[in-house]
Amino acid sequence: MFGDIFNAQFVASSIRVAIPLALAGLGGVFSERSGVINIGLEGMILSGAFTAVAVTNFTQNPWAGVLGAILVGILLGLIHAVTCITFKANQIVSGVAINLFASGITVFFCWLLFNETQIMVKTSLPIWGLPLPSIGEGSTFARNIIVMFAHYSPLVYLTIIIFILAHLILFKTPFGLRLRSVGEYPQAADTMGVNIIKMRYMAVMTSGALAGLAGSFLSLEQAHFFVKEMSGGRGFIALAAMIFGKWTPLGTAGAALLFGVGEALAMRLQGVLAIPVQFIHMVPYLLAIFVLVSAVGRATPPAADGIPYEKEIG
Question: Could you tell me the pLDDT band of residue 9, with boundaries at 50, 70 and 90?
Fold first, then answer.
């Protein structure tokens, strides 16, 4: 039974499940590194998932669906930024409002455009077949892993590139230094000539773009359909991954992969163990709770996280 669960397909499933969590979590990293809490990741993922399927079905071009999901995410990020940065509203309330708005508006447009609440994807993204190295006489598991990585969706490779670039941008460039300074000590950053408002706007809109991209992967590649509330708490799990990853891109990716393993395990255990399926579905969420409890006292958020910036006059 052990070999039937933990095999190459289990690894592939874990990675696919982890991609939306990792992208949304990275969005949270950018937003909170600038000092803005983005609880609205859940709604941005849901909106991106719907937009990706709707645009793909209308245009017969899945790349147009991905672009549409990113643009919708940016729009919701802009709304969150205007509310929290310009008008200095409560960031948690704004994020919750975005989640509620997305929950209702996606169902409304499903009925308006398709007369149903579940939409199947008519055109999928291509699978990129990368050249395989010489495998030799290695184990079957290793052979399957190599074959698996050679036939992934382009969004998987794009995600890997995004995380590498995000790490370099945040920790190896002047822009990243300014962004982190805005989230740690905005008063000092302001005296050095950093535009606090502009940096926070850029970070929150980037957060929305990444959450929208996460939603497009969820609907186009992972599920191949859209159904109401299909985000299923992934935005909040992504926030848990961000916290466990200590607000770093690579740490967030590792935590998202851990959650991906948990969800893939839950799917694999269905029908294998004599346990009610409702308890098996609890595995990813119990894992998120365990991770957050274990991170208490160890993960320190940016000092100005969630605090609106008031420019000192004098």
Answer: confident
Q: Over the stretch 208-233, which tens digit does the pLDDT of each residue have?
A: 999 999 999 999 999 999 999 999 89
| Of 166, 124, 132, nearest in space to 250 by CA | 166
**What SS3 class is residue 282?**
coil
DSSP 210: H
* DSSP state letter for 121: -
What b/e readout covers 1-35, taking b as 16+ CB neighbours within 10 angstroms? eeeeeebbebbbbbbbbbbbbbbbbbbbbbbbbbb
Q: Is 210 left (phi over 0), alpha (psi -120 to 50) or beta?
A: alpha
Instruction: Label the pairing between strands 225-227 and 118-120.
Output: antiparallel
Of 43-52, 166-175, 201-210, 279-288, the one with minimum mean pLDDT is 279-288
- Angle at which helix 283-295 crosses helix 249-269, to 10 degrees, equals 150
Domains of the chain and any CATH numbers: 2-119+142-295 (1.10.3470)
Classify strands 128-129 and 151-152 as parallel, antiparallel or unpaired. Answer: antiparallel
